[in-house]
């Protein structure tokens, strides 16, 4: 897995161990992501499908894109499409992805890079593999997370953040059994590079076989764990969790994830995405590419899009 790694985890700063009185987060439920296709036909797992939006708040959805090894001519992306009222966070683990939008944002991300697009008041964008990847084929694997914006930020100007893998905060557990990449937010006082409107944290952790991660987590944030690959357990009661499954956790000061001692040869370690944020607690009207507070605001978004108010396509 080419996402940024460290050969010797003992050189990294260590996460603190749970203190006296710190409460572990219980596991409320474990769900399995259904599989489907997005855009022009690239495979996805709908990581949070079936989870109540009130438990996801401030998140809307998350897709695991791939993992797929494209043959020449197979790689696909999306066509130009609109968004308003939220943010998209695209984290590429394997492969390469290009982004371009009508507000001037864009670039190429690969192997541990992240593009953070705040749609805000509205824009058009396109995501696709570069032409050389389409021609030659190759690995592609990543996630895309949709983060809601509060009512007073839904009409903010769009913006784009290009977050390189080398900017991510890297941490380890006290026994050096897990690598923790903090992409956004704060974990145990360590700040990730992503700037967010909605208070939240986003982490990619790799856990060695037989190792355990006790991850400090802001008590006022919710917490969700999604398994990218491998097998393990979540919570102190050891609920089994495997590739393509999500766990919804309850309140507490830290969360616990353990990797099984034996893993598949294709996935020798347990890789998880951990995400959580402070709930917005506002009504949601979500239709397709628009996430607003009311049905009338969604209809207004469609009208603005049809009248060309989301910007012009770049040449």
Listing every helix as H and every strand as E from the N terminus to the C terminus, the arrangement reads EEEEHEEEEEEEHEEEEEEEEEEEEEEEEH
Number of helices: 3
What low-confidence regions span 5 or more consecutive residues with pLDDT below 50?
Answer: none
Enumerate the strands of the largest sheet in spatial order, edge to edge or round the barrel.
Answer: 1-14-15-18-25-20-23-2
Q: What is the highest CATH level, the class?
A: Mainly Beta
Counted up, domains total: 1
Helix content: under 10%
Estimate what percentage of residues fall within beta strands: over 45%
Decide which structural class fits the backbone.
mainly beta
Q: Profile the largest sheet.
A: 8 strands, mixed
CATH overall fold name:
Jelly Rolls
Task: Report mean pLDDT, rounded to a whole number.
Answer: 93
Shape field: globular
CATH structural architecture:
Sandwich
Give the tally of β-strands.
Answer: 27
Domain Pirin C-terminal: 203-311
Keywords: Iron, Metal-binding
GO molecular function: metal ion binding
Protein name: Pirin family protein
